[in-house]
Fold ABC transporter ATP-binding protein.
Amino acid sequence: MEGMAIRLQGLRKAFGRTEAVAGVDLEIADGEFFSMLGPSGSGKTTVLRMIAGFEAPTGGTIELAGSDVTRLAPFERDVHTVFQDYALFPHMTLEQNVAYSLKIRGVPRARRLAQAREALASVRLEGFGARRPSQLSGGQRQRVALARALVGRPKVLLLDEPLGALDLKLREQMQIELKAIQREVGITFVFVTHDQEEALTMSDRIAVFNQGRIEQIGTPADIYERPATPFVAGFVGTSNLLTGEAAERVVGRAGTYSVRPEKIRVVKDSGNTGDPDCSTATGTVAEVVYLGDATRFLVDLDAGGRLTALQQNLETSSEDVAAYRGSRVRLQWHHRHNFRVPDVPPDAPPEAAPADRRPLRTR
Ligand SMILES: Nc1ncnc2c1ncn2[C@@H]1O[C@H](COP(=O)(O)OP(=O)(O)OP(=O)(O)O)[C@@H](O)[C@H]1O
């Protein structure tokens, strides 16, 4: 099919009794930055390895640019994989590192050097060609690994947590760079990560994985603002669920509702009922955490349950913050920030236990 880089249909993989991938259907368009997001062990890497051809599916099909490649060897597929623990040859210059795969393929010297220089320029390492890997920072080395992948001009680049080894600052910088590079080169990127912030920052679309299945596919805004299942609501951001009596009293309807922490305003309880356009809930501050630029409140609601609220520290200082602990507050947010979280369908897999999840950088 024209415009389609990857199509997975009914893709499955079992390792003995472990069903790592339990039926995945997915279409990724040409030039898309597509992320597979999910907790550890949810099957993302296995899907990536099947697309690359390193792992044979137990069932289902894989198409690349409209051709069935399910049974083809990795080298017969027009894809390239960048791993987290990329290895550069220490004794070679960057130019030689990047040109190496072209050399293996018998590309003449002048051409491969020209292409290597071009690839280095595309990752903003112009003029670095004569250096050796030991003379680079971690982020620069990661970019060389990327240049090495781009030099063969694959249709699709598969990236398995490529920023995982970098420290937080560098990682955030590389997220922005990587997205810009992808936009410029126009290659389809399929990016595996367990970090929701990373997926939200870079992706055109995201598939959220849980226990070998996809729970939701959508744009970052879809996933964050309109999570399709309680699992997605909880994994991407802080879920803040209102259920049962709390939903009826606060939202005014039965069901499960969620509101994002940054939408909630915390007001010292003055007794009045507040704005008619807003949902309001009174409660007691159980915990308050000063985060520098913002403050996080954990509030036990009178209607039952607990909500997290995140407030910018526009006027608040750390001394003010401490005084909130144990005090009565009113939480309020505009009605439009209440979103209904569909109940889990009966055949859906159970939610992963919190212990299965890696810590997220949500606040
Ligand atoms: N070669 C293998 N042999 C046996 N089991 C495997 C193998 N590879 C993966 N698994 C299992 O399959 C499941 C999915 O693993 P996978 O690596 O795809 O998850 P993931 O979502 O990429 O996790 P992570 O973020 O930790 O890499 C896990 O239960 C894992 O233990």
